[in-house]
Amino acid sequence: MTDIIYKEESYKVIGACMAVHSQLGPGFLEAVYQEALEREFSKQEIPFERQKKLTIYYDRKPLRKYYIVDFVCYGAIVVEIKSTNSFVKNQYDQTGNYLRAINHRLGILVNFGTASLSYKRIINPQYSNN
Fold first, then answer.
1. Considering 21, 47, 55, 56, which has the largest number of Cβ atoms within 10 A of its Cβ?
2. How does pLDDT run across 32-45, given as a tens digit for each residue?
3. Which pTM value belongs to this model?
Protein backbone atom coordinates (compact mmCIF):
# COMPACT_ATOMS: atom_id res chain seq x y z
CA MET A 1 0.00 0.00 0.00
CA THR A 2 1.33 3.44 -0.91
CA ASP A 3 1.44 6.29 1.55
CA ILE A 4 -0.63 9.38 0.87
CA ILE A 5 1.68 12.32 0.19
CA TYR A 6 1.26 15.05 2.84
CA LYS A 7 -1.75 13.22 4.24
CA GLU A 8 -2.44 15.32 7.34
CA GLU A 9 -1.62 18.62 5.66
CA SER A 10 -3.79 17.94 2.63
CA TYR A 11 -6.71 16.85 4.86
CA LYS A 12 -6.44 20.18 6.68
CA VAL A 13 -6.33 22.13 3.42
CA ILE A 14 -9.35 20.27 2.05
CA GLY A 15 -11.16 20.73 5.36
CA ALA A 16 -10.62 24.49 5.14
CA CYS A 17 -11.98 24.44 1.57
CA MET A 18 -15.04 22.52 2.79
CA ALA A 19 -15.61 25.08 5.54
CA VAL A 20 -15.57 27.90 2.98
CA HIS A 21 -17.85 26.04 0.60
CA SER A 22 -20.33 25.11 3.32
CA GLN A 23 -20.63 28.76 4.34
CA LEU A 24 -20.67 30.40 0.88
CA GLY A 25 -22.02 27.63 -1.35
CA PRO A 26 -21.53 27.67 -5.15
CA GLY A 27 -21.97 30.60 -7.51
CA PHE A 28 -19.39 33.19 -6.47
CA LEU A 29 -16.39 34.31 -8.48
CA GLU A 30 -13.08 32.59 -7.85
CA ALA A 31 -11.72 35.77 -6.21
CA VAL A 32 -14.40 35.56 -3.50
CA TYR A 33 -13.44 32.00 -2.62
CA GLN A 34 -9.78 32.93 -2.68
CA GLU A 35 -10.28 35.72 -0.15
CA ALA A 36 -12.51 33.56 2.06
CA LEU A 37 -10.02 30.69 1.89
CA GLU A 38 -7.20 33.02 2.92
CA ARG A 39 -9.20 33.90 6.04
CA GLU A 40 -9.99 30.25 6.73
CA PHE A 41 -6.34 29.21 6.36
CA SER A 42 -5.39 31.92 8.85
CA LYS A 43 -8.17 30.90 11.25
CA GLN A 44 -7.09 27.26 11.13
CA GLU A 45 -3.40 28.23 11.35
CA ILE A 46 -2.55 26.61 8.02
CA PRO A 47 0.66 28.23 6.74
CA PHE A 48 0.19 29.61 3.23
CA GLU A 49 1.43 31.99 0.58
CA ARG A 50 -1.25 33.59 -1.59
CA GLN A 51 -0.74 34.55 -5.25
CA LYS A 52 2.77 33.12 -5.25
CA LYS A 53 4.85 33.94 -8.31
CA LEU A 54 6.41 30.84 -9.87
CA THR A 55 9.51 31.27 -11.99
CA ILE A 56 9.75 29.05 -15.07
CA TYR A 57 13.13 27.88 -16.33
CA TYR A 58 14.27 26.88 -19.78
CA ASP A 59 17.80 25.60 -20.30
CA ARG A 60 18.34 26.31 -16.60
CA LYS A 61 17.69 30.01 -17.12
CA PRO A 62 14.60 31.86 -15.88
CA LEU A 63 12.06 33.02 -18.44
CA ARG A 64 10.43 36.44 -18.24
CA LYS A 65 7.02 34.74 -18.22
CA TYR A 66 5.88 33.26 -14.94
CA TYR A 67 2.89 31.60 -13.32
CA ILE A 68 0.95 32.84 -10.32
CA VAL A 69 -0.55 30.09 -8.21
CA ASP A 70 -3.51 30.72 -5.92
CA PHE A 71 -1.86 29.26 -2.80
CA VAL A 72 1.12 27.26 -1.64
CA CYS A 73 0.34 25.71 1.76
CA TYR A 74 2.86 24.31 4.21
CA GLY A 75 5.56 25.39 1.76
CA ALA A 76 4.84 22.20 -0.16
CA ILE A 77 1.26 21.90 -1.47
CA VAL A 78 0.09 23.86 -4.51
CA VAL A 79 -3.60 24.78 -4.16
CA GLU A 80 -5.37 25.95 -7.30
CA ILE A 81 -8.99 26.99 -6.95
CA LYS A 82 -11.75 27.18 -9.54
CA SER A 83 -15.41 28.12 -9.62
CA THR A 84 -16.84 26.21 -12.59
CA ASN A 85 -19.45 23.59 -13.44
CA SER A 86 -16.80 20.84 -13.61
CA PHE A 87 -13.09 20.29 -14.02
CA VAL A 88 -11.63 20.23 -17.52
CA LYS A 89 -8.35 18.78 -18.72
CA ASN A 90 -6.50 22.07 -19.04
CA GLN A 91 -7.09 22.77 -15.32
CA TYR A 92 -5.34 19.49 -14.43
CA ASP A 93 -2.56 20.40 -16.86
CA GLN A 94 -2.25 23.90 -15.37
CA THR A 95 -1.84 22.51 -11.85
CA GLY A 96 0.68 19.94 -13.11
CA ASN A 97 2.67 22.72 -14.77
CA TYR A 98 2.75 24.64 -11.50
CA LEU A 99 4.10 21.56 -9.72
CA ARG A 100 6.82 21.05 -12.31
CA ALA A 101 7.74 24.76 -12.35
CA ILE A 102 8.60 24.74 -8.64
CA ASN A 103 9.41 21.01 -8.28
CA HIS A 104 6.69 20.27 -5.71
CA ARG A 105 5.14 16.84 -5.27
CA LEU A 106 1.48 17.59 -4.59
CA GLY A 107 -1.17 19.89 -5.97
CA ILE A 108 -4.81 20.10 -4.97
CA LEU A 109 -7.23 21.38 -7.59
CA VAL A 110 -10.41 22.59 -5.85
CA ASN A 111 -13.73 23.50 -7.45
CA PHE A 112 -16.13 25.67 -5.46
CA GLY A 113 -18.60 26.03 -8.36
CA THR A 114 -20.68 22.90 -7.78
CA ALA A 115 -23.33 22.01 -5.19
CA SER A 116 -20.77 19.80 -3.41
CA LEU A 117 -17.15 20.85 -3.17
CA SER A 118 -15.00 18.81 -5.53
CA TYR A 119 -11.25 18.42 -5.47
CA LYS A 120 -8.52 16.39 -7.10
CA ARG A 121 -5.08 15.57 -5.77
CA ILE A 122 -2.46 15.89 -8.48
CA ILE A 123 0.94 14.26 -8.15
CA ASN A 124 4.04 15.52 -9.97
CA PRO A 125 5.58 12.46 -11.66
CA GLN A 126 8.74 14.47 -12.40
CA TYR A 127 9.35 15.44 -8.78
CA SER A 128 12.98 15.29 -7.74
CA ASN A 129 14.43 15.51 -4.21
CA ASN A 130 17.45 17.33 -5.59
1. 21
2. 999 999 999 999 99
3. 0.91
